[in-house]
């Protein structure tokens, strides 16, 4: 489980571009990326907690970022996914949805299929 | 205060209002006297958002079944983080023929699109069950 911390950035020119790039990088470099309310050890919302709990059942490396750390990143993520609420889950760069959709995919087997080629690397074990 | 908004609403919040109102046989101002001002404002905000959501979803998505449940109290720890007044988390169960042929992500996007104004004004989270009339008939 990797957890990224976003330092709040002063509103200097270009910070929104920085956050846009950050989100693109998150999603590209992390096979399973979750933008959540709170940190993995202490989810701040039941929906984020549920999504994380489901993903953890698959023994895949999960990367997470707390959207409350820098309010500006919320806009960057929303712009990227065109999805208004959190959590948001990306698998292999593809936007998957929020907790309802993850739960649905968990129950019907689609999530297992999506995650089947993702293995736990030595680094994140 | 918008009298009509809370008169029309259903659910536990409104039942409280009604029973209080019947007990004292008086109007809104008396009812408010039973509650802390902050709690009253929060309750009425919930009522009006639920009704706005219902109106928008019914008209935009031609919903044949629409259930909206306020679950903000379950998220009280962070409901006020962004300045909303507690009307932040809802469960929505909606049946619409417009969902036919659309996957879950698209269905959820249709609901979010219909509620754009609400999401801009403090609605944080929706738990959405979105089905077509046919899926309901087949009990999917």
Automatic annotation (TrEMBL), chain A:
InterPro entries, A to Z: Glutaredoxin (IPR002109), GRX_PICOT-like (IPR033658), Monothiol_GRX (IPR014434), Monothiol_GRX-rel (IPR004480), Thioredoxin-like_sf (IPR036249)
Q: Does the keyword Metal-binding apply?
A: yes
Q: Which PROSITE patterns match?
A: GLUTAREDOXIN_2 (PS51354)
GO terms for CC?
A: mitochondrial matrix
Keyword presence, tRNA-binding? no
- List positions binding [2Fe-2S] cluster: 45
Q: Which residues form the Glutaredoxin domain?
A: 32-96
| UniProt KW keywords | 2Fe-2S, Iron, Iron-sulfur, Metal-binding, Redox-active center
Which domain of life does this protein belong to?
Answer: Eukaryota
- Which Pfam families does the record associate with it? Glutaredoxin
Q: What GO molecular-function term can you cite, just one?
A: disulfide oxidoreductase activity
Question: According to its UniProt record, which protein family does this protein belong to?
Answer: Belongs to the glutaredoxin family. Monothiol subfamily. Belongs to the glutaredoxin family. CGFS subfamily.
Q: Which PANTHER family match?
A: GLUTAREDOXIN FAMILY MEMBER, GLUTAREDOXIN-RELATED PROTEIN 5, MITOCHONDRIAL
**Can you name this protein?**
Glutaredoxin
- What does UniProt list as this organism's lineage? Eukaryota, Viridiplantae, Streptophyta, Embryophyta, Tracheophyta
UniProtKB/TrEMBL annotation, chain B:
Its GO biological process annotations read: iron-sulfur cluster assembly
Keyword annotations for this protein, in alphabetical order, are:
Chloroplast, Plastid, Transit peptide
**Transit peptide in keyword set:** yes
Q: Which domain of life is it from?
A: Eukaryota
**Which stretches are annotated as coiled coil?**
none
* Chief site of localization: plastid
Provide the protein's localization: Plastid, Chloroplast
Q: Which GO terms describe its cellular component?
A: chloroplast
Q: Please identify the protein, giving its name as recorded.
A: BolA protein
Q: Which family does it belong to?
A: Belongs to the BolA/IbaG family.
UniProt keyword Plastid, yes or no: yes
């Amino acid at each position: 489980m990797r957890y990224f911390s976003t330092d709040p950035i002063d509103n200097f020119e270009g910070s929104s571009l920085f956050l846009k790039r950050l989100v693109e990088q998150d999603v590209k470099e992390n096979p399973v990326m979750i933008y959540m309310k709170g940190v993995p050890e202490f989810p701040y919302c039941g929906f984020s907690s549920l999504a994380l709990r489901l993903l953890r059942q698959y023994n895949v490396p999960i990367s997470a970022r707390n959207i409350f750390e820098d309010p500006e990143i919320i806009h960057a993520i929303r712009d990227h996914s065109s999805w208004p609420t959190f959590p948001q889950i990306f698998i292999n760069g593809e936007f998957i949805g929020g907790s309802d959709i993850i739960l649905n995919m968990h129950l019907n087997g689609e999530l297992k299929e999506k995650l089947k080629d993702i293995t736990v690397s030595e680094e994140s074990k | 205060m918008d009298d009509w908004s809370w008169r029309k609403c259903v659910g536990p919040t409104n039942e409280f209002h009604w029973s209080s109102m019947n007990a004292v046989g008086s109007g809104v101002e008396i009812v408010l006297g039973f509650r802390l001002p902050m709690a009253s404002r929060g309750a009425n905000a919930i009522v009006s958002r639920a009704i706005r959501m219902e109106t928008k979803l019914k008209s935009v998505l031609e919903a044949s079944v629409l259930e909206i449940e306020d679950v903000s109290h379950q998220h009280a720890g962070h409901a006020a983080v962004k300045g909303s007044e507690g009307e932040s988390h809802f469960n929505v169960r909606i049946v619409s023929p417009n969902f036919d042929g659309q996957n879950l992500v698209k269905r959820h996007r249709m609901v979010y699109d219909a509620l754009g104004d609400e999401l801009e004004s403090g609605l944080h989270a929706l738990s959405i069950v979105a089905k077509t009339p046919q899926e309901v008939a087949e009990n999917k």
